[in-house]
Amino acid sequence: MRRYMATYTWQVLKKELGLYQLARDIVIMIRVCKMFRQGLRGFREYQIIETAHWKHPTFSFWDKKRQSRVTFDTMGFIAEEDHFPPRAIQIMQKKASWRTEDEIQAVCNILQVLDSYRNFEEPLQLLLAKVMRFERFGRRRVIIKKGQKSNSFYFIYLGTVAVTKDDDGSSAFLDPHPILLHKGGCFGEMGLLDASVRRATIVCMEETEFLVVDREDFFAYKLDQEVQKDAQCRFEFFRKMDLFASWSDKKLWQLVAVAKIEKFSYGQLISKDFVESSFIMFISKGSCEVLRLLDLAASPSYHKWVWQHLELIDGRPLMTHVSEYSPMERYREFQIKSYPLQDFSSLKLLHLQKAWELQGTSFSRKIRTSGDSLPKMLGPKIKSKPTQSIKCPMINTNLGELPKEAVVGVYVKVHTVEQGEIL
Ligand SMILES: Nc1ncnc2c1ncn2[C@@H]1O[C@@H]2COP(=O)(O)O[C@H]2[C@H]1O
Question: Which atom of ligand 1 is nearest to the CA of 199?
Answer without folding.
Answer: 17
